[in-house]
Amino acid sequence: MASRTPSPTADRAARTAAAPGRGAAGERPRRRLSVDERREQLIAVALELFSRRPPEEVSIDDIAAAAGASRPLVYHYFPGKQALYEASLRRAGRELSARFEEPMEGPLSERLYRVMGRYLDFVQSHGPGFAALLRGGSVAASAGTSAVIDEVRRAAHDQILAHLAIPTPSPGLRLTVRAWIANAEITSLEWLAERSVPLEELQLHLVQEFVASLTLTAAREPALATELASFFADERPDGPSGRLVQDLAALFAVPGILDAVTALATGASTPAGPASAGPASADPAPAPPAPAPVDEPSAQATAGSADTADE
Amino acid sequence: MASRTPSPTADRAARTAAAPGRGAAGERPRRRLSVDERREQLIAVALELFSRRPPEEVSIDDIAAAAGASRPLVYHYFPGKQALYEASLRRAGRELSARFEEPMEGPLSERLYRVMGRYLDFVQSHGPGFAALLRGGSVAASAGTSAVIDEVRRAAHDQILAHLAIPTPSPGLRLTVRAWIANAEITSLEWLAERSVPLEELQLHLVQEFVASLTLTAAREPALATELASFFADERPDGPSGRLVQDLAALFAVPGILDAVTALATGASTPAGPASAGPASADPAPAPPAPAPVDEPSAQATAGSADTADE
Fold it and tell me: Is the pLDDT of residue B1 over 70?
């Protein structure tokens, strides 16, 4: 517990003068904290402030005042604002990564839905201050900050792959996961700036976009088809995937869409030759399965039939 | 090794010593250029160097040497390396934005495919040096650089919306476009780092992901269904959308997938839950608000749970 302040009293006066009325809520100034406690407290206070405002609008004085500490005391623990900023970002990164953890139970899209709820909650409470950093336009960006961000992205990536439970994910699948993480990041940053849709919608959409990306990846990589089958077999009608499928079924019932898509599917199912004679004109023939099946009574509604590679 | 001497001779000597054999290819040193020409030339040379290496590995001496100019001459035009870096980034941004321009003709996915070809070509030639900047971990990041990046993103966004030709794009659609741009950015940066798939695949995948995102957006926003119908009607079987549809059709022909997806589609058209003897033991599922009702006349949107979102 080493304070560098020559005089606590003078120091407290200076603090008060610098930031009148900014004492830490409910905390006695100068409460005796251990070295570790003090350090953690300063980081917590800094995180709180840096979460709400860009770094250039937070001063060491603000942090000291909010922590009920002296400015020299803060400097005793951290060489400067940047160090404190990075420490608080590391803390934020750990908190965020912890939110990615989710039991390996239940339909996958529902797990991701719960994770996204916690993620968006974090974005809402901590994002405003870190938005510039994540967008790449922050004065506080550094090798240290980008290491933290990379670490969080990697944690997200690893969690998703762990839940997918695919032993050796292909480069294409990894890329899909990374791209989706970027999508989630950007979308939530955009949301922070404009709040143009309800947060719950965002939560659902991001999960559904993941399901769609996974499906697209499997469409390019036949090796993933079995995994996709068991993924869908575990999903539930009122979960994110089920609702996505229903929305797509409704969309494909809109006049014109199913015909156009069917024409695209059949246009090339005739192998070789100048099959693409009429792009949109001819061939309304309803042949191979369109992406989202329209529900028809005769369709195999054998729900729960163990059709996949069982267990 | 760098000399600040005003003597051009000494300077040239120093340059040669510093970077032997690095003279501008095919260009006479000291060729007389107008002020504007010289400025543009310095930017072009700097862009060339900054495209290949991170800014910290490019010195003013390197730029002077490559431009066949003296170090003081470079300083005469630019106050320092950062200014030259930003000027070359602005040039890069303009070049990149110019590549987004595409005639308003032909199927939309094919237009985007051509644009992505030019974009990825740019990434391949200029990306390596700017990767850190785009990832947010560059020492050269500044308000100036992030303004350039934002400008390029906005150009991409505006071009896409112009081609979609939707008079008043919804916030959801704008978000989709922005998220896809981020996807393209991240995916191409990841590709630069790992080159794990052929570039042509990336080009096709990014376009197909756009088509999928657009479809998903229309699934949530019924107002877009008409636009989506005319989008698909213009597509061709051997274009990116056609191939996507065919790949998905093939995927859905894989045993298990169509059944599982059909179960999801129909599972919720039966009003109350238990009809679908759920794959994962009959359990209450989380009930996020349903965005769109199922398309069966008898089915109320009360799919087994106390839902909010209908009136």
Answer: no
With beta carbons under 8 A apart, name residues in chain A contacting B267. Answer: 236-238, 242, 301, 303
The partner residue sitting opposite A303, judged by closest CB among B253, B277, B289, is: B277
Rounded CA separation A277/A267 (Å): 9
Helix extents (H) in chain B:
8-18, 35-52, 60-67, 71-77, 81-99, 108-135, 143-164, 171-194, 199-220, 225-234, 240-252, 257-267
Q: What b/e sequence results for B109-140 when a residue is b if at least 16 CB atoms lie within 10 Å of its CB, and e otherwise?
A: bbbbbbbbbbbbebbeebbbbbbbbbbbbbeb
Contact B232 A196 (CB under 8 A): no
Query: At which residue do the structure tokens 């039966």 appear?
Result: B270
Is A214's pLDDT higher than 90?
A: yes
* B219 → closest Cβ in A150, A186, A247: A247
Chain B CA closest to residue A139: B142
Q: Minimal Cα distance from A279: which residue of B?
A: B236
Lowest average pLDDT, out of A78-82, A255-259, B23-27, B149-153, goes to: B23-27
ipTM metric: 0.73
Contact B138 A141 (CB under 8 A): yes
A156 vs A180: CA distance, rounded Å = 10
How far is the alpha carbon of A21 from chain B, nearest alpha carbon, in Å? 33
Q: Considering CB atoms only, which of B194, B242, B293 is closest to A171?
A: B194
Q: Cα separation of A255 and A284, whole Å?
A: 12
pLDDT digits (tens, 9 = 90+) for A109-127: 999 999 999 999 999 999 8
B79 Cβ neighbours under 8 A, 6+ residues apart? none
Residues A243 and B285 sit within 8 Å (Cβ to Cβ) = no
B194-206 per-position pLDDT tens digit: 888 899 999 999 9
Q: How far is B146 from chain A (nearest CA, A)?
A: 5
| Three-state secondary structure string covering chain A | CCCCCCCHHHHHHHHHHHCCCCCCCCCCCCCCCCHHHHHHHHHHHHHHHHHHCCHHHCCHHHHHHHHCCCHHHHHHHCCCHHHHHHHHHHHHHHHHHHHCCCCCCCCHHHHHHHHHHHHHHHHHHHHHHHHHHHHCCCCCCCHHHHHHHHHHHHHHHHHHHHHHCCCCCCHHHHHHHHHHHHHHHHHHHHHHHHCCCCHHHHHHHHHHHHHHHHHHHHHHCHHHHHHHHHHHHHCCCCCHHHHHHHHHHHHHCCCCHHHHHHHHHHHCCCCCCCCCCCCCCCCCCCCCCCCCCCCCCCCCCCCCCCCCCCC
For A298, other C-beta atoms within 10 Å of its C-beta total 5
* pTM confidence score: 0.75
Rounded Cα–Cα distance for residues B236 and B219 (Å): 22
For an interface test with B, the pick among A56, A235, A236, A308 (most B C-beta atoms closer than 10 Å) comes out as A236
How far does A283 lie from chain B, in Å, by closest CA?
A: 12
Number of cross-chain residue pairs from A and B with Cβ atoms under 8 Å apart: 353
**Cα separation, A228 vs A217, whole angstroms:** 10
* DSSP state for residue B170 in the 8-state scheme: -
